[in-house]
Amino acid sequence: MIRILHSVSNMDRAGIETMLMNFYRHIDREAVQFDFLANKPKPGDYDDEIRAMGGRIFISPGYKRVPQYFRYMRALFSEHPEYKIIHAHNGSLMLYAMRSAQMNHIPVRIAHAHATSIPFDFKNGVKQCMKPLIKYTATDYWGCSNAAGEFYFTKKRWDARHELIHNAIDVSRFSFREEYRKEIRARYGLGDKFVVGHVGRLTWQKNQKKLLEVFAALRRMRPDAVLLIVGTGELADKLKAQSAALGIADAVIFAGVQSDVYAWYSAFDTFVMTSWYEGLPVVGIEAQAADLPCVFSDEITPEVKVTDRVRFMGLNDPAEAWAQAVLSFAPAARVGRFDELCAAGYDIETEAKRMQALYTELYANIKNGDQR
Prior knowledge:
Blueprint: E1 2-8, H1 15-26, E2 32-38, H2 47-52, E3 57-59, H3 66-79, E4 85-88, H4 94-103, E5 108-113, H5 124-137, E6 140-143, H6 146-153, H7 155-160, E7 163-164, H8 171-174, H9 178-187, E8 194-199, H10 208-221, E9 225-230, H11 236-245, E10 252-256, H12 261-267, E11 270-273, H13 282-289, E12 294-297, E13 310-313, H14 319-326, H15 338-343, H16 348-367
Helix pairs in contact: 1-16, 3-4, 4-5, 9-12, 10-14
């Protein structure tokens, strides 16, 4: 069995973590097993499932204590010589995992790009300095989109040697189901109202501030509209206060984290995402699998567009223009999009087999003495 050590923040229900769990559930765990190095002490939503599937979870001291982090990693690799492949998903901060693995002679070090920008926070300067160094510590460059790979590793290096790993999903599971629609709409008394859907962490990156402005404009055009937001985050209270200030609090539902998020897409009539940046959002693929009309920020890579029911809008475009875009799609019966998403590389069954084959090839190269 090949054991892969994934470096993550923690295994909550967020985009990267959900993507990893999609792959983890569908690989042959007799051949390849996932373990996780969490860099935050908070227990993750997926922890119990990971352990039930045979995965291990290690908790590092985190990045605020750099010397302790490197000592911990040295001890971890010493105690677990089975780790020959580390796969990091921590944005610019993955440099810590890549460098510690390099120092401890881990032969395969996969840096995985998931974004096209760096969050603007108090660590921004440090992250900007760290990002250019990743390409010198990693042996392999993977990314969820070409835009993300080029951002983290430079276009020249990305073009020369990269693996594009689609944020694949169980397409059938996210397909439209009338029973899901009826159950969730009945739960919230939505009836035949026009439901604008959004799934995402309530953070600066996802820019739900703009989403609420768009919905306020749309509500003036379509008084029966309701905004249904699935997810939670540090901006929840501010966003609730903003919805009250905009006079739309009675039409905005903050549903929190949901374990059956696949069902919620069936309850929506449209999907809106106003992010400042994304690598390639899993939720954008999930929404298209449910045959939803989608309006995305044009800061999101156009690689996310799979179906013909997608429009992009600029973040500087007025809220009224966004609202008109949301309402521009002609009403249509929801149909299956399985063939389109599979052809575009988003079928998890196929992509999990490909990822497993990549790990197996990398491991075989180690056994054969390939000096990377």
